[in-house]
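Re: weekly structure request thread

Next one in the queue (171 aa):
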Amino acid sequence: MLVTPATLRHLRDTIEPIVVRLGCELVAVELGGGPRGPILRVSIDKVGGVGIAECTQVSRQLSPALDVADPILGAYDLEVSTPGIERPVQRAADFAKFAGCEVRVKPYGVESKKRTKGVLLGIQEGIVSVKTADEVKQFPLDSIERANLALTLEQFQRLGEGLSPLAEATP
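Done, posted below.
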């Protein structure tokens, strides 16, 4: 299944207002293949975390809205979940927000095993910079198929409390 940045932007534009209206943040929209066909994965979060009730509520509100907007040809499965400890990063604002965190980046057209791992330096003028052990690699935002944070448990917990994952813990 060919998924373009424009398709994902269109999906995000359709989904985000509904998620925000329900008191959550839209973290990521992913469209991929599954054993039974396409799967639209929507990751949501909020301070304190989300549970099954919020995921269910968002799913129930999204289904009819997506049926009307019809952004995906044919049948697909909708999955609404939390982003988890390997939080996806998609928006420019999130690449800036999570600068300093460990990240894995997979550009379009690159095998999954050839992801770039390193420290996210941020984004400037649409270019994402990642410091690896050997060099600083740069990726145009629209060339990134997938990027995920590699948070420690402590960083994940701070993020769940609404703090920066890099903030020092208070005694």
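The mean pLDDT is 91. Strands lie at 25-34, 37-45, 77-81, 102-107, 116-124, 127-131, 136-140, 144-149.
Next request, please.
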